[in-house]
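Appendix B. Raw example, untouched.
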Amino acid sequence: MSSQDTRVASEYPHSSQLRTTPDKLSFFDQFPQKWNAPESFIPRHIFKICCLIFTWRSDLQWLHGLLKIRKGDTYQWEELHRQYLAQLNQVSTVQGLVLATAAVFISSNPPLPKEVNYSSAASYACLAESLVFSLFGLLFQLKVSASGFIFQKHSAAEIIIERRWRIFWHLLGLAVPIIIFSISVLLLLIAIVLSGFASHSETVRLYMSITFAFLGTCHLVSILGSPFYFHLSDLCVRIVYAMSGTRADLERSSLVLDPEVLQGGVESK
C-alpha cells in the first residue's frame, strides 16, 4: 500500500505538468485554432465585425501577437491587465467628480435663471441621466476592479481562449465601465450646452459658442496625433481600395503604411 502511494505521488507532478504546459504553449507559442473565423457565412461576418470593433482588424492575429509577448517571467496578457486596472482607478476618480457635479446641479437652484437655467426640463433630464450613469459606472468599475486580478492569471487566459467568442465577451466586459463613463460625461456636457444655448442672454450664448469651438478644435488636434487616427485612416484607405477593386493599390498602401518598410526606405536613402 505504501509503495502504491509513493508511485502515485511521484507520477502526480509529472501528470499535472503535462496537463498545464501544452495549454500555455498552445496559446502563447502558436495561434489558437478556435480563434479562426467560423466557416458559416453569417457567423463569419459577425466574427469579422467583432474583430473590427475590438481590435480594428479583420482577425485576431494581431491580438494574439500582442498577448504572446513575454517580458521576463510575465506575459503581455498580465501586463495589459495591470495597466488597465491602474487606468480604471483613475477613471473611477473622475467618475466620482462627475457624480458629485451632477448631484450639485440637481439639488440646487440656478442663481441666474434668466441667464443660465439648468433646471429646465431638458437640462434636468440630462443631469438626472448623468447622475444615474455615474452611479452605475462606479459600481461596474468596482466590480471589474475586484475581478480584474483573477483575469490576470494564466488560468483565466486558458479558459477565455477555449472558445472564439469568449475573448469578445471578455473585452466587452472590460469596455463597459469606460462606455458608461463616457455616456455620463456626454450627458453632463449636453446639459451644460442646453443650459447655455437656451439662455436669454446673447453674451452667454456667445461665450458658450467660443468655448465649445475652442475645446472642439483642441480635441480634434489631439485626435490627429493619436494612434486612433492612424488606425482609422488606415482602415478608411483599405475600405476605399477594397471597394474600388484595386488590389495592387491596397497592397502598395499596406507597404507604405508599414513602419518597417518606412524605416527601410529612410535607411536606404
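End of appendix B.
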